[in-house]
Structures are given as C-alpha cells and as structure tokens.
C-alpha cells in the first residue's frame, strides 16, 4: 500500500508532536532563517508596538541595532524612552502598517510631502505623522517642522546603514487624507486634532495593498542597499478598537489574517524577505492565552522572552556572544522584556477612550 | 513666638550669619539653626521621631556636626516653620541638559540637539524630582517646610571657574536663552516642591547678576570662593523664605504661577 505524502515527516510537521505535546515555550525548529543575522549585522527596526520589544531585546543581546536618534546621554533614560529616543532606529514612533513606513521612506528621500503635517490641541502643536513621540506636543508649528527635518535626516542615515530591516506588521486600519493619500498613525481627536477643512477618513488596507506597500518599501531599500534583507513579523496583540463597524474580535482576526497572509505572499515570492513567527508563538493554542497579560492584548514578559529566545537561538546568538572575549555569556533567560519599569508605548491604546490618560 | 528653624548645608549657614539682622528685623521669631557641610548634610537622615542626625557611621559627619551645632541632632517636630536651604536640585545635570538640548521653538542652536520644549521640561523635571526624592527619602518633609535652592555661583565664576560645577554654570549662563532656561528650571523646582506639599522660595531676584549667576557683591569671600554668600544675602534670602506662604494644597501649589 502506497504511503501518503504526510507519512514519515519530521516531528515539526505534525501538530501533535510539534505543538500539542510540547509546552508553549518549548516549540522546536519553529523558525529556519532564510538569511543570517549576526551580532554585527546592522539592523533597522520599525513597526507597531511589538517592534519595541524586538528592538530592545536585540539591543540588550548585543546586536548591532541602528539608533540614528539615540537617547541624549544627559537625559534620564526613562524620559528619553518616553519620547521615543532609542526605541527604534529613529524616532518615527510606531509604524503600524507598511504604508506609513513607505511614506516615511519617500519623505526622507525627498519624494513625498505629507499633507497636514502639523496637528494641534490646546494650543500645542503635534507632528501628525508621529504625534506620540512628543506627547506634550511642541510650542510652535515651526518647532514641529524643524524637528521633523532633523528626524528625516536621521531616518535616511539609518536606512543607509541598514543591512537587515525588521518590520513588525501591526494594523490594517489606518487614517488618511482623502485628497493626498497621506496616512496618519492616529485618527483625529485621539492625540491631536487635524486642521480645520482637512478631510481625514478611515482606511482599511487589504492583503494586496499590504503586499504592494511592502514591495515598494523593499524597492526603495534596494535602491540604496541592493542586497538588503527584510524580516517581517506580525504583532500578536489584537486591536484595541476597530472603526470598521465590525465587532472587534472578528475585526482583529481579519486584521491579523490579512497581515499574516501578506507576509506569506511576500516571503514566498522573494528570498530576501523572511518571516519570523512571533505572532504564532504568542497566540498558539498550547499557550492557552498565558502569553497575554490580563488585558488579553499585551504580551507578557515571559511571552516576549520566549519569542526572542526562539529568534536568538535560530541565529546562533548565544554561541556568538559567548565567543566574545570581552563579554560574559549572555543569559537569554534574563532578556529584558518590557515590564512596569520599561513599558512599551502604544498610542493605539488611546483608540479606547477609557484607556486614555486623564489630561494633566 | 513663631519657632523658625533654618536648616541645611553651608548655604543655610549664610542665613545663620544673618541671624543678628534677622532677629532685629523680626523680633517675633525664635530663630534656630542646625546644619552640616554639603557632603555631610546629604548623608544626614531623620528617624521616626523626627530627629535629624548626621550619618552615625561617618566620622567626618559626626565631627562636623559637633563643630557646627550645639546638639548632635535637631528635633524637627519642635518648630512651626522650617527653612531648608541649599538643595542643588541636580543643578549640574540640569545645566548640562540646558546646554545639550535646544527647544526648537527658539530655533536650532549649533552643537545642541533640537528638541521640543516638552522634552526639555520633562528632562529637567526628572533631574529635579530625583534630587528632591533623594532628600525626602532621608528626611520626610511636611507643609511647615519652605525650600530654598543653593544660590547660583557668583558672576565671577565665569572667569575663575573651578573643577566643580561653575564651568558648566558659566557656559549655561552665556547661552542666548539663559533667562528662559533658568525660568524653566525654576518653574520645575517650584512645581516639584508643590507636588509634595512644600513651598519653595527662589533666590531673591535682586541678588542675580544674570541668569544662573549671582552678583559678585553678594559673596562672603570673593577672593577665595565663588559659591558662598554673605550675611546681607542671608537676610534677603530669609525675607524671601518668610514671605513664601506654605501651599494650602499640593495641587494648588503645583498650579501656582511662578515668579520665573
């Protein structure tokens, strides 16, 4: 009798042996990198809130994470982090979708001028493209524009240095200026208000749009560094809120499914794109939700630690670090995930009015 | 008689030297002083009964305490008002930040990182809070207390300098926006005190030569020391402390306008 194609496969191919019978933190052979990322590989990080965990963990583990806008040394680190210094490779804040990222790259390259770049609230002025990097805003619109000019220069520096870009796909829902297509990370009214007369509307990015935007990003990156690599992840947390008129649960499922499917489409077609399954590690049924905090959205420190250990292990980082004569062997169990002292900053939280901080 | 304690380090001692003049000007006050040099005062702490003592493990503190005071401790519960003088509020770090960061609403500045004014304020607030928290951890303070920061160094520090903070002060004083930066810093120290239910009196404006610098005429020993002020300064500082009403409520104090 002829066997089935499912016969005789390795353990990783069967749910029973690969997932159900293993603890959620003990998944094996989950991720086989398409390209090597070494401790000396210049890494550019960007994406949604979860990407902050990635940046921090890589930095702590001794990877060459690019920080073109580092925290000023004179300033208390907690203050600097709250203003997104040293949180990503530059201070662009959370880039929840690839259209935001693409728009940023085009603007840094001088190919795009965003519409309505300055929003306001209570006499303060906010960078509409990254309103939460200066949570109290600026004293003037001119200050916003000068700061943005400096920021774009830093973005360009960071991109030119990068050999690997790690981008975490977070959301499909976004807000855009209907006339120009400029996208914004927050809706009007969440942190600041759009100028009078502007026409900012809801936009839901589908699979094809995500794929197209990521390909355009890669094309831009390749124009600077032809052999650049792109590592995609999908943020595991569900939506805080949806403006789609759907229930937030199916809206979350649709969002993550679109992002995950887009990542699959992209990796299948381009060997320079890889996917790291952080989404699956946090959400897999064997974890029984244990990798989520009580709000069922934020990953627990343990969950983040498991994710990053998988990543480090796949890239042989423990071994690489241990070989450094000037560094002690890393203890991956103590990888510093976000906790109460090092929170990730996520303006998406403010889409739920009950989660917004009371004004000072 | 209102029992007033002047408390603190060598800058509080400036007020001590003014006690004869203060006593004459305010005969209704019963004045007391207790202090230690800066390093020793920074190690002194208060026990559960409200008695402030030098660090018992530090021989220098104990020796200086005996030299400076009649008693080896001071009972903080025995006073109606306490003027705690000479805190630095991490001034060195504050001035370093002022030089390193430039709020972009004032335009860019060569050599400084352009930031939002909100970031600059947050950075200053963190330094001020850290300094005040450290003081409060050693000695809990209540609404009887009015703080006064250490005076800014004298203007001649710009020329003389030292290996301490004067060079940084001098450099900050020379910034085009020095007055505005000093106002931001002083607003932060007033608000930090207010958030903790404490009043804060700023260095009298009449003693300033320019932002971050005191008039040379206020110095006790101009030839040797650009930091410590004379009895006349002490009297003016006491006037300012006495005139500063305790905050009725922490929130009200935090929201109060500043003189900056």
Strand arrangement, major sheet of chain B? 2-1-6-9-10
Percent range for helical residues of chain A? 25-40%
CATH topology of chain B: Rossmann fold
Q: Report strand % of chain A.
A: 5-15%
> How do the strands of the widest beta sheet of chain A line up side by side?
1-4-8-9
Q: Indicate the overall shape of chain A.
A: globular
Give the CATH architecture of chain B: 3-Layer(aba) Sandwich
Largest sheet of chain B: 5 strands, parallel
CATH class of chain B: Alpha Beta
SS elements, strand count of chain A: 9
> Which class do the helix and strand fractions of chain A yield?
alpha/beta
**Helix-strand pattern of chain B, N to C?**
EHHEHEEHEEHEEHEHHHEEEHH
Helical stretch count of chain A? 10
Number of helices of chain B: 11
> In total, how many domains does the architecture of chain B comprise?
1
Structural class based on helices, strands and sheet pairing of chain B:
alpha/beta
The major sheet of chain A is characterized as: 4 strands, parallel
Low-confidence stretches of chain A: 319-338
Pattern of helices and strands of chain A = HEHHHEEHEEEEHEHEHHH
Assembly of the depicted chains: heterodimer
Number of strands of chain B: 12
In short:
The complex is a heterodimer of chains A (360) and B (260). Chain A has 360 residues and is of the alpha/beta class.
